[in-house]
Amino acid sequence: MQSSIPATLLALGLSLGLCATGAAAQDEVKIGFIVKKPEQAWFINEQDAATALGEEKGFEVVSLAGEDGQQVLSAIDNLNSQGADGFVICPPDVRLGPAIVNRAEQYGMKVVTVDDQFLGPDGEPIASVPHLGMSGYKIGRQVGEAIAAEMEARGWDLDETAALRISNNELPTAKARTDGATDALLDAGFVQDNIFDAPQQNTDTSSAFAAASPVLSKNGRFEHWVIYALNEESVLGGVRASEQYGLSADQVIGIGINGSGAAFAEFQRQSPTGFYGTVAVSSTMHGRQTADNLYTWITTDEKPPANTETTGTLMTRDNWQQVRADLGL
Ligand code: GLA
Q1: Cα 23 to ligand 1 centroid, rounded to whole Å
Q2: Which residues line ligand 1 (CB under 6 A)?
Q3: Residues forming beta bridges with residue 32, ordered by sequence position
Q4: Is residue 203 within 8 Å of residue 37, measured between CB atoms?
Q5: What are the Cα distances from residue 42, in Å, to 74, 166, 181, 204?
Q6: Which pTM does this prediction carry?
Q7: Protein residue with least CA distance to atom 3, ligand 1
């Protein structure tokens, strides 16, 4: 009898302990972080930063890929079955916005976008979904200004210089970025007729390479090329195409946007390539801030700001390590 008392107490203690663990597990906030290009350094960094914040603050982040509409919808189903409270998403196509919002609403999940903002059926941004992304036009202008400065430093003749504009006009942030770069170049005296579009189907290196190659070969009369696009992955595709076409590094000035692993690898090559630089933006901040906004919304019911725009810093071979450290990349 005497020995059964501690056993009972032990059992009681154990079951209380289990209850407490069960309650904590149920209370723990869980969010998804769905990205369109899970293999790109920019998005890996966003997801890692969100996960690290969750570890600090005590919520769980489930990182998922959403490379097309089908995959996004099953990622949301998957999150729902895991009991997630909401998700951050960079959608593979901004026109999927209404379908994604619908699915989230069905499940009572909160949704915020990062990088690429949802468009409604009217072609306008869906203002009810909080968004955080680059100030595309301004960052694009920085690209154009940096290209113009480097052209001048190299003493290039404007009549012999062409621009390879790798475009993605279906994606508003992409169009804003390339428009900004174009305007800054024109303001610096670039010849409008020397700007050639290479429309890419996607936002990655291989689609940019495929888009760029025919444009270069059709316009063989130019001595020099400048290359810009919505991101550095795409500019790298253009630079690789220029190499294949036979242009040397000193005939090309490519400037990207992002400041992620793709650019770091290029800066670490023994000799410079046509990839001159990139306007770096903190993907760490994008990942942390959107996860934090969503977590706050879930836990305090305070809705995040409708639209937050982030800024960038020019990164070249000369300063990339410093800028990388400054931006926490
Ligand atoms: C888009 C691009 C990414 C990155 C983000 C940043 O999603 O495809 O490479 O530039 O914007 O906002």
Answers
A1: 39
A2: 42, 90, 115-116, 133-134, 173, 203, 230-231, 257-258
A3: 62, 87
A4: yes
A5: 23, 19, 21, 12
A6: 0.91
A7: 231
Going by the DSSP 8-state scheme, the letter that residue 77 receives in this structure is H
And the tokens for 314? 């020019």
Let me know if 115 is exposed, middle or buried by CB neighbors in 10 A (0-12, 13-18, 19+): buried
Helix 97-106 and helix 69-81: axis angle, to 10°?
Answer: 20
Contacts of residue 134, defined as CB under 8 A and 6 or more positions apart, other chains included, come to 115, 173, 177, 257, 281, 309, 310, 311, 312
**Digit-coded pLDDT (tens) for 218-253:** 999 999 999 999 999 999 999 999 999 999 999 999
For residue 206, count CB atoms less than 10 angstroms from its CB and return exposed for 0-12, middle for 13-18, buried for 19 or more.
middle
First to last CA, the chain: 64
Reading the block at residue 4, the tokens are 């059964």
Task: Look up residue 247 and give its two tokens.
Answer: 């242009």
Residues whose CB is less than 8 angstroms from the CB of residue 137 and which lie 6 or more positions away in sequence, other chains included: 176, 177, 179, 180
CB 227 within 8 A of CB 199: no
Q: What is the pLDDT of residues 46-76, one digit of tens each?
A: 999 999 999 999 999 999 999 999 999 999 9
Compute how many other C-beta atoms are within 10 angstroms of the C-beta atom of residue 92: 21
